[in-house]
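Go through this pair.

…
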Amino acid sequence: MGHSFFSKKFVEPVINLMRQGITPEKIAISISLGIALGVFPVLGATTLLCALAAVALGLNIPAIQLVNYLVSPLQLALLIPFMQVGGWLFGSGPTGFSLSEVASMVRTDIGHAIVTLWSATVRAIGAWLLILPPIVFVSNPILVRVLRRLNVSMSHRQRTPGEI
């Protein structure tokens, strides 16, 4: 099931984008930024961030939003670790929150949750800012190479047997 889900939700859309003429470089940066912005430690902000990045950089909005959607479980999984790393980086110590406590606060009283989580969220954003740019700079060239190979492979398969 995992392979077919990945293929249907990720590989096939990427192949379709290349068939539409979108370059491997544009797809790679859409994937890299979609992942990085998709794990931004502010719930509800990632769709807007991805859309703004796509418009600003001339990227394919559906591509970056697809990646954002696919990494949304990762955003939830990384929320508390970003808060913890932010607390460590900025000398305030661990937050003491669990994901279920954060979810409960948000469901019960969003205003109170924002006030209570404000400083932990700001520190989490600081941690995100320190951690994610290097990941984007490392992952993007790797993705470009992989997508170029996939693009070349696709173009070879589309040729008829008599073509050179």
Remarks:
- Residues 110-158 form the longest helix (49 residues).
- Residues 2-158 form one domain.
